[in-house]
Write a structure and sequence with these properties.
single chain, 493 residues, alpha+beta, OB fold (Dihydrolipoamide Acetyltransferase, E2P), BirA Bifunctional Protein, domain 2, 8-stranded mixed beta sheet, 5-stranded mixed beta barrel
Length: 493
């Protein structure tokens, strides 16, 4: 709709509003109560034939937004849409009276209205309410857009999500699915003995993940605080305190870039289980994803960006080093030292930072060479120690830790590891992180003395996992961008 036409329509609608008189309550009422939803009416009477509907004495009250308005002289058809669906309404002049019917004819697509009447079927067998009363509840001043989808409008859709939801039913379905997914995850964990908890969103020290934090200031305490990048260190304090299984499903904040996979404010599930290791987390993750796919999609074979993904377990397990070697076409022995890795990167024409240590460079090569190819579910195992400051060392090779990341559709969906609970080892790793921070790495964490003190009281052997809820919803709804599954994503001004 061009701006001139939209301006003209707005003027017409404002004129209609003025014709109602000075009492604006006539156009913005709050005295109508629906007795049924569209779905409830269809569930109750949708299978009845015309004779059975005619025999019903029931009157239904329905409220919603007017769609597809079609006036025809002394009668008018329109659809009314609520949160559960649409139903046709038939309004007749001889049934409503002259004045009431003129008010119906003055309605516009987009208006919110209440309708009372009995059900019947039209000659085309469409279930319909014959209106005995039509009440304008809220005047819609702006016309609904005729075309509100496709790439050219995508950013406007995100900025004006209320219109996107209004005119695109498939968008509403994505967010209904999101709600079902989150509810299912909570119930799945509760049934396995996990306790849902809440930990601080504002923290005196940013920790629990390698990420640049947002900084805020508490005026009364004259104290700088950080929006949390992860709840990990607080949740593991609860393991020390005696809760053996805990989880939190809430927001994290990372002061980083925007992309189809990243939003600075995002929803994360983190869970921790005492007397478990990362193998147990792999089993739990497979169970959760399989049950979710059956619940949400009804199938373990689901579409994913134009391909088909099979969630049928068991999922592939691949060591990070083996994955890089396979993708680079070399033996694992050719990746043992930093010079080895630099030679491989140079041979493949990859741009890498030569100042990275061996572990970080190995992960960098993995992200460039391997990650985009992991379409089917794959647990990538055994990450380098230097990129995993909170994870337990591998017993056989202490250069690596007992950690996995889960990839599906070329995207990381989960990160888990056996937890480090040796306070002296944790202190050393914190100090290494703090040194990196002083050297200019603003994603490195500081020394959290209180967390080390908690470990000195003995944290049981445990495993923990973080699952990105937004990316999980992307997977289960086949959405291409994280902005498609966040109701109000952050956008440039």
């Amino acid at each position: 709709m061009d701006e001139v036409n939209e301006h003209e329509q707005i003027k017409v609608r404002r004129d209609k509003l003025a014709q109602l008189g000075p009492d604006r309550r006539l156009a913005f009422r709050n005295d109508f109560r629906p007795s049924h939803t569209v779905q409830a009416i269809r569930d109750r009477s949708g299978d009845l034939d015309p004779q059975e509907l005619e025999a019903l004495s029931d009157e239904f009250a329905l409220a919603g937004r007017i769609r597809a308005f079609r006036p025809h002289g002394k009668a008018a058809f329109f659809e009314i849409e609520d949160a559960t669906g649409r139903l046709q309404v038939y309004a007749r002049k001889d049934g409503l009276g002259d004045e009431a019917y003129e008010r119906v004819r003055s309605l516009d697509v987009g208006d919110i209205a209440g309708v009372r009447g009995r059900l019947f079927r039209t000659r085309t067998d469409e279930l319909t309410i014959q209106a005995g009363e039509v009440t304008l509840l809220t005047k819609c001043i702006r016309p609904l857009p005729e075309k509100w989808h496709g790439l050219k409008d995508v950013e406007t859709r995100y900025r004006q999500r209320y219109v996107d939801l209004m005119v695109n039913p498939e968008v509403r379905e994505v967010f209904r699915s999101r709600s079902r997914i989150i509810g299912f995850v909570r119930e799945f964990l509760r049934q396995r003995g996990f306790l849902e908890v809440e930990t601080p969103m504002m923290q005196p020290m940013a920790g629990g993940a390698a990420a640049r934090p947002f900084v805020t200031h508490h005026n009364a305490l004259d104290l700088d605080l950080y929006l949390r990048v992860a709840p990990e260190l607080f949740l593991k304090r609860l393991l020390v305190g005696g809760f053996d299984r805990v989880f939190e499903l809430n927001r994290n904040f990372r002061n980083e870039g925007l992309s189809t996979r990243h939003n600075p404010e995002f929803t994360m599930l983190e869970l921790y289980q005492a007397y478990a290791d990362y193998e147990d987390m792999m089993s739990l993750t497979e169970d959760l994803f399989v049950m979710l796919a059956k619940e949400i999609r009804g199938n373990l074979r689901i579409p994913c960006g134009g391909r088909e993904v099979s969630l049928e377990p068991p999922w592939e397990r691949l060591s990070l080093t083996a994955g890089v070697a396979r993708a680079a076409g070399v033996e694992e022995s050719a990746l043992e030292t930093l010079p080895d890795l630099l030679r491989v990167a140079d041979k493949l024409g990859l741009q890498v930072d030569p100042r990275l240590g061996r572990g970080k460079l190995l992960v960098e090569l993995f992200e460039q060479l391997v990650e985009p190819r992991l379409i089917q579910p794959t647990f990538v195992l055994d990450y380098p120690l230097e990129v995993s400051p909170l994870a337990r060392r591998n017993d056989d090779d202490p250069q690596f830790v007992d950690r996995f990341e889960l990839f599906i559709g070329g995207r990381e969906l989960a990160n888990a590891f056996s937890e480090l609970n040796d306070p002296e080892d944790q202190q050393r790793r914190f100090e290494e992180q703090a040194a990196a921070r002083r050297a200019g790495d603003d994603t490195a964490c500081e020394v959290d003395e209180d967390y080390v003190r908690a470990l000195e009281y003995a944290m049981p052997p445990a495993a923990g996992e973080g699952i990105g809820i937004d990316r999980l919803v992307m997977l289960l709804t086949d959405s291409a961008s994280i902005r498609d599954v966040i109701l109000f994503p952050l956008l440039r001004s």
